[in-house]
Amino acid sequence: MPCTTAKNLTSEAKAAQATAIERLAAAIGAGAVQVVIGRNGGIALKGWAEADRAGVSDLCAYRALMHAPEMRRAVMRAEALAGTRVSAIAIATGVHSHDGGQTWSRH
Q1: Could you say which DSSP state residue 6 is in?
Q2: Does residue 32 carry a pLDDT above 60?
Q3: How far is CA 12 from CA 21, 37, 87, 93, in A?
Q4: Coil, strand, or helix at residue 43?
């Protein structure tokens, strides 16, 4: 994943990212963080504080957890609410949100 293979990433930073992703899975399972799906099929994580991320983006976290039961349930719920599905094309092209799904960008 890009977030764990970035240049000059120390082993401590990789460990912090792994911990952040584990905590995110627990927060999603508990309902503290919500998955939001945009009209374009992009994904965002609402309620995941910047201080808890350890440099991990929403897309990277989704890719890391996409097969985890907590994430799968949250995505199914978000797809039902949004009336659209997660788009593999949107994920691959980097469609993302920095504000919990209010606005979307590819940059």
Answers
A1: -
A2: yes
A3: 14, 32, 33, 29
A4: strand
Euclidean distance between CA atoms 107 and 95, whole angstroms: 8
Q: Structural domain of residue 48, as residue ranges? A: 35-102
pLDDT of residue 2: 53
Give the residue from 60, 2, 48, 59 showing the smallest Cα distance to 23.
48
pLDDT single digits (tens) 39-91: 889 999 999 999 999 989 898 899 999 999 999 999 999 999 999 999 999 98
Confidence of residue 17 (pLDDT cuts 50, 70, 90): very high
- As for how many domains the chain has, the answer is 1
Give CA separation, 85 vs 32, 43, 51, 94, in Å.
22, 10, 29, 16
Residue 50 falls inside a structural domain: yes
Q: Has residue 80 been placed in a domain?
A: yes
Any domain includes 97: yes
